[in-house]
């Protein structure tokens, strides 16, 4: 290896190492991804709790064990079966016991993964009725009670922005990404490509049912901190739900390759206190969404 390429490799490894350190420290910001992040965005709903628990307490162990097993096998093969230490190769072409083991063991692993996985999927697909309990962070132990929805919002995917409709309140508006000049002028503390003009406003500690559809092509409604992702299909109503326990602003994006501006239709959900939501909704119902948003921002700061 030449001195130059060695320095290059060493510099790359050092860069990788130092890139990982702040990621661990800064990965705790809720609502959007941060540079160098590894792992999920922090959870604020029971569904995301169960996804995180499933990932951290089962999948990571299985993945780590498989990686270590394969590493050990590779090392054994390299050490024991290279040409120097093993000059006369064996003529064995198959071994029935090993073939059974490497068929049955993966099936058992998939079975172990499937059981909690189906539980999490069922929770995502079942709108709370106030009686069913959900897995939450206690996925391998207890349950979480979730009240039935008290707010229903329809999210419609358009080329290329989102429309929101508060079904029982008669408030509807569209939500369009801010370009760089608009963002710097109006919402400088919000992330680039995620800030929108009109955020979806919902109350904290409330179960929200989201009806998801599309008006033109396929889109998908996804908010990582809520653990939701559902297809938006023309002439069809899909359903999802969330119950956010912390106020703040949570971002998502369209998650279906829908066309040229697919990457520019962010979802911004602002979770506020109930009284702030009531005031915002009352102002929005009177007809001026801009005034409602201005008053809401004043009450938050
Ligand atoms: Cu889309």
Automatic annotation (TrEMBL):
InterPro entries: CcO_II (IPR045187), CcO_II-like_C (IPR002429), CcO_II_C (IPR034210), Copper_CuA (IPR001505), Cupredoxin (IPR008972), Cyt_c_oxidase_su2 (IPR014222), Cyt_c_oxidase_su2_TM_dom (IPR011759), Cyt_c_oxidase_su2_TM_sf (IPR036257). It is a multi-pass membrane protein. It comes from the Bacteria. It comes from Pelagibacterium halotolerans (strain DSM 22347 / JCM 15775 / CGMCC 1.7692 / B2). GO terms for molecular function: copper ion binding; cytochrome-c oxidase activity; oxidoreductase activity. It is found in: Cell membrane; Membrane. One of its GO terms (biological process) is ATP synthesis coupled electron transport. Belongs to the cytochrome c oxidase subunit 2 family. Subunits I and II form the functional core of the enzyme complex. Electrons originating in cytochrome c are transferred via heme a and Cu(A) to the binuclear center formed by heme a3 and Cu(B). One of its GO terms (cellular component) is plasma membrane. Residues 148-283 form the Cytochrome oxidase subunit II copper A binding domain. The chain crosses the membrane at residues 58-79, 100-122. Residues 32-128 form the Cytochrome oxidase subunit II transmembrane region profile domain. It catalyses: 4 Fe(II)-[cytochrome c] + O2 + 8 H(+)(in) = 4 Fe(III)-[cytochrome c] + 2 H2O + 4 H(+)(out). The keyword Translocase applies. This is Cytochrome c oxidase subunit 2. Binds a copper A center. It holds the Pfam family COX2_TM. Its cofactor is Cu cation; heme. PROSITE patterns: COX2, COX2_CUA, COX2_TM. Keywords: Copper, Electron transport, Membrane, Metal-binding, Respiratory chain, Signal, Translocase, Transmembrane, Transmembrane helix, Transport. Its EC number is 7.1.1.9. Its main location: membrane. Residues 1-27 form the signal peptide. The keyword Cell inner membrane does not apply.
């Amino acid at each position: 290896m030449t001195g130059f390429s060695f320095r290059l490799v060493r510099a790359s490894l050092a860069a990788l190492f130092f890139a990982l350190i702040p990621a661990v420290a800064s990965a705790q910001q809720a609502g959007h991804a941060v540079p160098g992040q590894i792992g999920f965005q922090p959870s604020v709903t029971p569904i995301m709790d169960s996804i995180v628990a499933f990932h951290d307490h089962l999948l990571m162990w299985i993945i780590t064990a498989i990686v270590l097993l394969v590493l050990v096998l590779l090392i054994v093969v390299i050490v024991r079966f290279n040409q120097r230490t093993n000059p006369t190769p064996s003529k064995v072409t198959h071994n029935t016991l090993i073939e059974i083991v490497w068929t049955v063991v993966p099936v058992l692993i998939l079975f172990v993964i499937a059981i909690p996985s189906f539980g999490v999927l069922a929770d995502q697909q079942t709108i709370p009725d106030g009686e069913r309990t959900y897995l939450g962070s206690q996925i391998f132990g207890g349950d979480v009670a979730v009240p039935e929805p008290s707010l229903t919002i329809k999210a419609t995917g358009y080329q290329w922005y989102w429309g929101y409709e508060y079904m029982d309140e008669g408030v509807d508006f569209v939500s369009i990404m801010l370009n760089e000049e608009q963002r710097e002028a109006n919402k400088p503390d919000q992330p680039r490509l995620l800030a929108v003009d009109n955020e979806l406003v919902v109350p904290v500690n409330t179960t929200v049912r989201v009806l998801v559809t599309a008006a033109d092509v396929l889109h998908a409604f996804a908010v990582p901190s809520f653990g939701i992702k559902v297809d938006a299909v023309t002439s069809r109503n899909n359903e999802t739900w969330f119950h956010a326990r912390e106020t703040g602003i949570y971002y998502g994006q369209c998650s279906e390759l829908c066309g040229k501006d697919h990457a520019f239709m962010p979802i911004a959900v602002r979770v506020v206190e109930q009284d702030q939501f009531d005031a915002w909704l009352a102002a929005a119902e009177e007809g001026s969404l801009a005034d409602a948003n201005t008053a809401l921002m004043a009450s938050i700061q």
